[in-house]
Design goal:
membrane; Outer membrane receptor protein involved in Fe transport; cell outer membrane; 2 domains; Maltoporin, Chain A; globular; 22-stranded antiparallel beta barrel
Length: about 800
């Protein structure tokens, strides 16, 4: 039956959460005097066969602690000379890393033995609670040497939109964290820059579909947490690596006439270095990566048909060069047994140079009406510093954390456009400067209980983004003369949260509440021709609830409920038009408001000796759905894409995962995600550059994705991985996107007695991946296919020392 399910599903790569480690703590006391008993003997044995797992003695205050205990059922045996030995049934589980067994009272030894009823911590033996999936980047051989974005595309339930954004279960509202925090590198509340973060810097990736109240409330689809590498071995150690590759070895589709060549044989270079030194109370670390890539970033061929009968054929070709350098360093200082301080610093520089050509022709390519060439020179700087203080109370797992994080992020962008018309040539340019500053203060408190834990905390954020856009029009410029100007974005968010976790032999409960107050102000120059200063504020509760019932040691069902919010990012409301192409223009909307989502999920997991099966039914309802709406300006062929709140939408589906070791050297992981996206009928008005009303009918489509991953352990320390992905057709704003599929292959060999690794891989082995979509507007239709670079061959080497 297990094998039948496996081959019916088609699937994913990855690994389930590893078995959690638990720390047990308590205090030995005299049952009559209530005084503590020092230097008592504590043993932990398996419940089934009484095998000794670990042991310790209580300290001078009668307290004891057992660390690194695997999840499972045990007997805790407590003894002391002159007292009766006590045996406690213990269930160490996965919901809490620290369990407080409370007071273990011993009776003086007399001739009469009394049976003593003891209540200890009782927890499931199943390792994960189905709210999070963890994936080791080192296990992903087929994507080694690439970017974090490339790795994420292969994860279960993850897909990409037509513009390269990640989706979880059909929604692109995903919060991206680095080491548990929002950063300017990936965006505060959004997702940016993932295609430039080298995977060589990353230890693992976590997918959290149903976050607890401890996390920020943004991201209705969930959270993806990227964990950077950090070693804590004693002494001096580290890892150095180098990988390189080539992409775009051949043309998927030739250019339209008269434009500059597409990038081919594009190089990729990525050296990396990780260092760590640990001695006594100090641990210092450094992680450095440099990434250079050339990419055919976009190669889209489109046909636009207007109600007037006019047909325009065009191509958007964008050659990109990216240089990405990042350095992260810091130290951990164990001041004493109770107090630690961690200080980290991060610096990142990202430079992107885009050179593009956009020709415009009639339907049969006999008449060229325009050639638009552009150069975009963009540099981003990010510098952040954080300090984290942790106080450990005497009870194991009883902690108080306080942290402060400051981030400075600069965007320095220059755009140069050459507009070649039959009668003249014009040149225009923009310069945009944006300095983002973010200060976060967090306080978190955790206290273990006999049956779980309580946790709570507060957060305060202050964020500001002043922007200055300068426009330098050329001769006969087609660009809006008011395209430049200034704007100031500011955001203040105080938040409080509390969370309670309870575990028993059959039941698990996690309930939390986060209360956020948000105040956003967006000021624009008073003489703007369309938009005025805007802002909003709200105070909302965001509850989360998880109830799980353990049918037995191998089967568990869970019910989740969460309420979350997606606030517009600054770029979503930015008033300055972005000319990716001269006749389809993107612009923000200061009147855009947050969207709120309620999510309900029912999950089931079954473990067996050589694998597991997981399924989830989910349903999300979103009010104020944020999306882009394209409308045509009357009397012109110009199309403007403007962010709007489109009303209510729904996302319902089922996710199925399975892992099975077929034989000792072959392991297969599989994932199927099928969902229905529905957007109710709505009406909006695009105000820029002139008011245009758009009416949309109800949209509904069943879509999904299928992924399969095979891992092969071959002789001579050789490993291979084959990954296949299929994305079904889906709806997008005002249209639909067609199906896509790809196959990736990787091979890795361990050398130098385990210290070295060699790998070779290729993404999109058969060069089949392209994006095909159709969009229908108020008086036009666009059909397009994007043959951007997807096939890349890479080879790399790393060495641990």
């Amino acid at each position: 039956m297990k094998y039948t399910i496996l081959f019916l599903l088609l699937p994913f790569w990855g690994s389930a959460q590893q078995i959690s480690k638990v720390t047990l703590s308590g205090t030995i006391k005299d049952s009559k005097t209530k005084g503590t008993i020092p230097f008592g003997n504590i043993q932990l044995k398996t419940l089934k066969d009484s095998i000794l797992i670990t042991g310790t003695m209580s300290d001078a205050d009668g307290q004891f602690k057992l660390t690194d205990v695997n999840s499972g059922k045990y007997m805790l045996i407590v003894s002391y000379m002159g007292y009766k030995t006590r045996t406690l049934p213990i269930l160490a589980g996965s919901l809490s890393a620290f369990l407080d067994l409370g007071n273990v009272e011993l009776e003086e030894d007399a001739n009469t033995l009394n049976e003593i009823k003891i209540s200890g911590q009782q927890v499931t033996g199943i390792s994960n609670k189905m709210d999070k999936k963890t994936f080791s980047v080192a296990d992903n051989i087929s994507q080694g040497g690439g970017s974090v974005l490339q790795v994420m595309k292969t994860l279960p339930g993850v897909s990409t939109t037509q513009d390269g954004k990640l989706e979880l279960r059909g929604s692109d509202k995903v919060a991206i964290l680095i080491d548990g925090k929002q950063t300017a590198i990936t965006g505060f509340g959004g997702q940016t820059g993932l295609d430039n973060i080298p995977v060589s810097a990353i230890e693992r990736i976590e997918i959290i579909n149903n976050p607890s109240a401890k996390f920020d409330a943004n991201g209705n689809a969930g959270i993806i947490n990227i964990i950077y590498k950090k070693n804590k071995q004693d002494g001096f150690n580290g890892k150095a690596g180098f990988n390189t590759g080539l992409g775009a070895l051949g043309q998927k589709k030739e250019n339209l006439p008269g434009i500059r060549p597409q990038y081919q044989n594009t190089p990729k270079i990525n050296p990396s270095l990780s260092l760590n030194y640990r001695k006594n109370k100090i641990n210092t670390f450094f992680q450095g990566d440099w990434l250079y890539t050339q990419t055919l970033n976009r190669n889209e061929f489109a046909e636009r048909t207007y109600d007037t009968g006019e047909i325009i054929r065009q191509q958007v070709k964008r050659n990109r060069i990216t240089t990405f350098a990042i350095a992260k360093t810091g130290l951990d200082w164990n001041m004493d047994e109770r107090n630690t301080l961690t200080i980290t610093g991060l610096f990142n520089r990202e430079k992107i140079t885009d050179r593009g050509d956009i020709p415009y022709f009639n339907q049969d390519l006999t008449v060229s009406s325009r050639l638009w060439q552009f150069l975009e020179d963009e540099v981003k700087y990010t510098a952040s510093a954080s300090a984290i203080y942790q106080h450990n109370f005497k009870q194991a797992g009883h902690t108080l954390n306080a942290s402060f994080n400051y981030t400075f992020h600069r965007e320095d962008e220059k755009y140069f456009f050459t507009n070649i018309m039959p009668a003249y040539t014009g040149e225009d340019s923009f310069k945009l400067l944006s300095d983002e500053q973010v200060a976060d203060l967090n306080v978190d408190y955790v206290r273990p209980l006999k049956h779980g834990r309580i946790e709570g905390g507060l957060k305060f954020r202050r964020r500001s983004i002043p922007i200055n856009m300068q426009f330098f029009p050329g001769m006969n410029s087609p660009i809006d003369v008011n395209a430049g100007g200034w704007a100031d974005y500011s955001e203040t968010i105080p938040a409080l949260y509390g969370n309670y976790v309870y575990e028993s032999n059959k039941l698990e409960l996690e309930a939390g509440l986060r209360i956020e107050y948000v105040k956003v102000a967006y000021k624009v120059n008073p003489n703007h021709n369309t938009y005025k200063s805007e802002g909003y504020d709200y105070a909302k509760p965001f509850p989360n609830l998880r109830i799980a019932y353990k049918l037995d040691d191998r089967n568990k069902i869970s019910l989740f409920y969460t309420r979350r919010v997606d606030r517009p990012n600054e770029v979503d409301i930015r008033i300055f038009p972005k000319y990716d192409e001269p006749e389809v223009i993107k612009v923000g909307n200061p009147a855009l408001r947050p969207q709120f989502t309620g999510s309900l999920e029912l999950g089931y997991k079954n473990n067996w000796d050589k694998g597991y099966f997981y399924s989830a039914l989910y349903h999300r309802i979103t009010d104020g759905t944020i999306t882009r709406i394209a409308t045509q300006v009357p009397g012109s062929t110009l199309i403007y894409n403007v962010f709007q709140n489109a009303g209510r939408s729904y996302n319902s589906g089922v996710e199925l995962l399975i892992k099975q070791d077929l034989v000792s050297w072959v392991s297969v992981n599989a994932n199927a995600n099928v969902y229905q996206n529905t957007i109710n009928a709505f009406q909006v008005e695009n105000k820029y550059p002139v008011p245009v009303t758009y009416n949309a009918a109800l949209q509904k489509l069943v879509s999904g994705n299928l992924k399969i991953n095979g891992l092969f352990h071959l002789p001579n320390k050789l490993e291979a991985q084959l990954t296949g992905t299929y994305l079904a057709p889906d709806i997008i704003p005002q249209g639909r996107i067609s199906s896509r599929y790809t196959v990736d292959l990787g091979i890795k060999k361990t050398i130098q007695k385990g210290a070295g690794e060699l790998f070779l891989n290729v993404t999109d082995l058969f060069n089949t991946l392209k994006i095909q979509k159709e969009i229908t507007g108020n008086s036009f239709q666009i059909k397009s296919k994007d043959y951007y670079e997807t096939q890349v061959f890479r080879i790399g080497y790393s060495y641990k020392f």
